[in-house]
Write a structure and sequence with these properties.
Radius of gyration: 13 Å
Helix content: under 10%
Shape: globular
Oligomer: single chain
Number of helices: 1
Strand content: over 45%
Structural class: mainly beta
Distance between the termini: 40 Å
Length: 116
C-alpha cells in the first residue's frame, strides 16, 4: 500500500502564498505521474496540476501562472507552491498519483482557506 500525506495548508489572506508538501511511501515514486487535486465545499474534486517523473507539468487554467508543482524524487516529496491566492482557491487539497486517482483512492488532504 502506498501512503501519501499532505501538509502545509492553513489560513491565508487573499494575495498571500502557501507551499504544500506531500510525502510518499511509494518505492517507485520517481516514475509516477503525480498530481494535486482540490475539493471546495459543495463542489466536485478537480485536478489542479500534474507532473511527470521527468518534470513535465500541466496546470488547470484557473491556477496557471500562480501555482507551481514540483517534485523531489530523492525525498519522495511532491510540492505545490501557491502564490496570489484567491478566496476561490479555498478547498481541501490532495496529492495523488494518476493510477490511484483513477481508482478513487484518496488520502486525508490538507485544508487551504483564503480569506477575502
Amino acid at each position: 500500500q502506498v501512503q501519501l500525506v499532505e501538509s502545509g495548508g492553513g489560513l491565508v489572506q487573499s494575495g498571500g502564498s502557501l507551499r504544500l508538501s506531500c510525502t510518499a511511501s511509494s518505492t517507485i515514486f520517481r516514475i509516477l505521474i503525480m498530481g494535486w487535486y482540490r475539493q471546495a465545499p459543495g463542489k466536485q474534486r478537480e485536478l489542479v496540476a500534474t507532473i511527470t517523473g521527468d518534470d513535465n507539468t500541466n496546470y488547470a487554467d484557473s491556477v496557471k501562472g500562480r501555482f507551481t508543482i514540483s517534485r523531489d524524487n530523492a525525498k519522495k516529496t511532491l510540492y505545490l507552491q501557491m502564490n496570489s491566492l484567491k478566496p476561490e482557491d479555498t478547498a481541501v487539497y490532495y496529492c495523488n498519483d494518476k493510477r490511484r486517482a483513477d481508482l478513487g483512492t484518496w488520502g486525508q488532504g490538507t485544508q487551504v482557506t483564503v480569506s477575502s
